[in-house]
Amino acid sequence: MTALFALATSLLWGLADFGGGLLTRRIPALTVVVASQVIAVVVLGAIVVATGGWSEWGPQLWFAVAAGLVGPVAMLSFYKALALGPMGVVSPLGSVGVAVPVGVGLVLGERPGLMQYGGIAVAVVGIVMAGGPQFRGAPVQRQALFLTLVAAFGFGTVMALIAEASSTLTGLFLALFVQRVANVTAGGLALYVTARRGAEILPADGGMRAVWSSVPALAFIGLADVAANGTYSIAAQHGPVTVAAVLASLYPVVTALAARGVLKERLRAVQAAGAGLALVGTVLLAGG
Questions:
Q1: How far apart are CA 275 and CA 253, in angstroms?
Q2: Given CA atoms 276, 91, 5, 113 in this order, what sign does their dihedral have?
Q3: Separation between Cα atoms, residue 190 and residue 77, nearest integer Å
């Protein structure tokens, strides 16, 4: 069950990242983040009311609040790092945040088997390679590296926190709702500050009309991200966090394959090799 839900997490995160990447080509990244999370809050709020999730209220939700505050910082750092580039270095480096939940699992006493240790090593190498790392070309700015590491640490921290935010299905709905409320609060404040400084928060071409026309895509991004957090939480609760975290971090492979299928982008040799290694690592982890 752990492998199944963790792989579902990778699929959902990979597709959400791909969709978000397309949208940010015409809508400011911060607006995409906030608008997609607002939609998620509305949907999750309805689910919490329908399932009676309010009864699960407790101190464990502080983990969800923390995840909700860290998430926007990580996402915006990642987008800023991508803007500074080169993307071929930033994108795969962002996946090293998997070290956070894996480290938490080891500290808590998890001890994967020898085959699983091998699977973790192979999968992590595959994840980085699937992002298409560049070994030549323009040097990477120090600011880009710093922001990428901030984003990676943030993504890994969110994974570790959300796994601790609930222990039941209805509690998970409530935890995800609280996380998204915190996301919107932090992101909305950042959006307000950005607007006050005179920066663009709406598309130059189309303005608010362009945002409204993108609601279906925004809804997909927001709900896919929510679902990914949910499936990861379930995976981490029903098996070793060290395994769940690595399998859930295969999303760069999904994003690369989506770009290949939809945008007809050709996979570089290093990306194809990385996808293959990630698959081998997945088999070792699932079989261990």
A1: 6
A2: positive
A3: 13
The domains of the chain are located at 2-287
Identify residue 20 by its one-letter amino acid code: G
Write down the pTM of the prediction. Answer: 0.79
Kindly state the tokens that stand for 197: 């400084």
Task: Give residue for tokens 């699977």.
Answer: 119
**Which tokens hold the place of 222?**
């927001």
Residue (of 231, 255, 276, 287) closest to 9 by Cα position: 231
62/126 Cα distance (integer angstroms): 34
**Which DSSP helix (H) or strand (E) runs through 215?**
helix 215-237
The pLDDT assigned to 12 comes to 93
Task: Indicate if the alpha-carbon torsion angle 39, 40, 42, 47 is positive or negative.
Answer: positive
Structure tokens at 212: 């409204």
CA 54 to chain centre: 26
**Least confident range of 55-64, 69-78, 117-126:** 117-126
Q: Where are the alpha helices (DSSP H) in 52-141?
A: 61-84, 87-93, 99-107, 114-130
Q: How crowded is the C-beta side of 125, counted as CA atoms within 13 Å?
A: 12
Contact 236, 67 (CB under 8 A): no
Shortest CA distance to 277 belongs to which of 121, 82, 101, 86?
Answer: 121
- The answer to whether 174 and 61 have CB atoms below 8 angstroms apart is yes
